[in-house]
Amino acid sequence: MESREISSGLLMRLLTLLLYKINKTPCLRRLRKHPGRIFLVSSKLCIKATAFTTLAEANTMRFVAQNTSIPVPRVYCSFKHKGRVYILMERVQGQDLSQNWSQRSEESKARILAQLKAMVAELRSIPPPGDVGVANVDGGPIFDQRLPDKSFWGPFTTIQEFHRELRRGLELADGEEAFPGLRELIEFHNGPWEGPVFTHGDLAVSIS
């Protein structure tokens, strides 16, 4: 299923593209304190428009905001322009955990990890649609740069189908010789499995 744009009227498109173009100038890029993949437009706004940004990413943030108590940036608009996706969203103030993690007390670390655990548990508790397998929030392909060969996979009807794709369709006949552990891996891949859940597979060290 194709992901939909959010509030992508002409005015919002022009405003986002103008802000992106201004903030991409070499002068402003040198002045930014936090250069990276997201343009910090102001204390309240930021724009994400990398080569890997997708409309599903914006829809996911809106979905999480609507179905959980997890604080996520508000998405003001998202659209595709000349092959690139632009997301204009709220800039949430915070401090990267990676900056002072080693200086935190064990009690502080434990509280933060408990919060993250609760957030992930809340994500995974969202009831999935009955007809969705391994897919993004819109029913389209999942994105993971860590997977081999390609970054976009699926969608898949079942978890077993996803696992089969991971091993490039490899199956073993009864009695067929195989590398040590391969038959056990395939048996593990084939389940049985419970239904898929909504989750986040790449919590970064830059969490604020």
List keywords for this structure.
35% helix, Phosphorylase Kinase, domain 1, alpha+beta, 208 residues, 12% strand, two-stranded antiparallel sheet, single chain, 4-stranded antiparallel β-sheet, 7 helices, 3 domains, globular
General description of the model:
The structure is a single chain. The chain is of the alpha+beta class. The chain folds into 3 domains: 10-90, Phosphorylase Kinase, domain 1; 95-126, no CATH class; 128-196, no CATH class. 35% of the residues lie in helices and 12% in strands. It has helices spanning 10-23, 26-31, 55-67, 97-100, 106-124, 159-166, 182-189; strands at residues 38-40, 45-48, 75-81, 84-90, 142-143, 152-153. The protein has a 4-stranded antiparallel beta sheet with strand order 1-2-4-3, with helices on both faces. Strands 5-6 form a two-stranded antiparallel ribbon.
